[in-house]
Design a protein that fits this description.
Order of helices and strands: HEEHEHEEHHHHHHHH
Number of strands: 5
Distance between the termini: 66 Å
Pathway: One-carbon metabolism; methylamine degradation
Shape: elongated
Protein name: Methylamine utilization protein MauE
Structural class: alpha+beta
Pfam family, one: Glutaredoxin
Function: May be specifically involved in the processing, transport, and/or maturation of the MADH beta-subunit.
Helix content: 55-70%
Strand content: 5-15%
Largest sheet: 5 strands, mixed
Membrane topology: Multi-pass membrane protein
């Protein structure tokens, strides 16, 4: 990596060619402009204002995409090439990552604590713990319901019940969402507990068999069918949380365990 990319000399010029049309402004062109300015380059911003002008530019420089960046007359390439030139990472769209589920669980935990604080003045309550699981189930169901067909197809790769009865893959997100909402409300325990216990148990056994017995490397359908989350520990935790919540609420219904604050009074 050259010193020029990290610490350009004062007045070092960068030419940016990007699409700016009445109905379309290239987002990667804007991101490239931001990167160049932050790095300290003096940017010459060239707009490609028509499709014909854009195609002519591509043909002239032998490139397939825009934007294109030139620094001191040397072509660097597009947005990703610029990131590499500046020493920044470039995400691999095919790489597996736990980031979606980490972000989801962190958000639902904060939601649960915020709701608990609004009701009791204390973010760390039994109610917050119960709501965390309920919120997580509801949000996970929402992500699956964005494209049930894609979710069901990915789900068939490892779920033991769905492999034997295909409609289960389509029913699952609705069941998970219903159980989550009922658990948040603390209502119809006789319905939410069996649903959560059933889908959680089947899910946990399916994940354990696929990952820890058969050592298969699969993508998890837990956050929808289009994710790159690997099937494994996080997927197992999702199902174990549902089982734990179902058991807890069942015990509370029989007076064996304390009820959450939101169901008192």
């Amino acid at each position: 990596m050259s010193d020029l990319s990290k610490h350009p000399a004062p007045g070092t010029k960068a030419a940016l060619y990007r699409m700016v049309m009445p109905g379309h402004t290239c987002p990667y062109g804007l991101k490239s402009m931001h990167l160049l300015k932050r790095a300290g380059y003096q940017v010459e911003d060239h707009h490609l204002e028509t499709r014909e002008q854009t195609q002519a530019f591509k043909a002239e420089h032998g490139v397939a995409t825009t934007p294109q960046i030139f620094i001191d007359g040397k072509r660097i390439g597009g947005h990703d090439d610029l990131r590499r030139f500046l020493g920044k990472s470039v995400a691999d769209p095919k790489a597996t990552s736990y980031r979606p589920v980490i972000a989801l669980f962190a958000t639902t935990a904060l939601m649960a604590m915020a709701a608990s604080y609004a009701v009791t003045g204390n973010p760390l309550t039994l109610m917050a713990a119960e709501w965390f699981i309920g919120f997580s189930m509801a949000v996970l169901a929402l992500l699956k319901l964005q494209n049930v067909e894609t979710f069901a197809t990915m789900f068939l790769n490892y779920d033991l019940l769905a492999e034997r009865w295909v409609p289960y893959g389509y029913i699952y997100p609705f069941a998970e969402g219903l159980a989550g909402v009922l658990m948040i409300a603390g209502a119809l325990t006789w319905l939410s507990v069996p649903i959560a216990l059933f889908i959680g148990t089947v899910g946990a056994v399916s994940v354990f068999k696929a990952v820890y017995v058969e050592n298969r490397e699969l993508k998890c359908a837990c956050v929808g069918g289009g994710s790159n989350v690997p099937l494994g520990f996080i997927s197992l935790v999702e199902n174990l949380m549902m089982i734990a919540m179902a058991v807890w609420m069942a015990l509370a219904a029989f007076g064996v365990a304390p009820e959450g604050v939101h169901r008192l009074g």
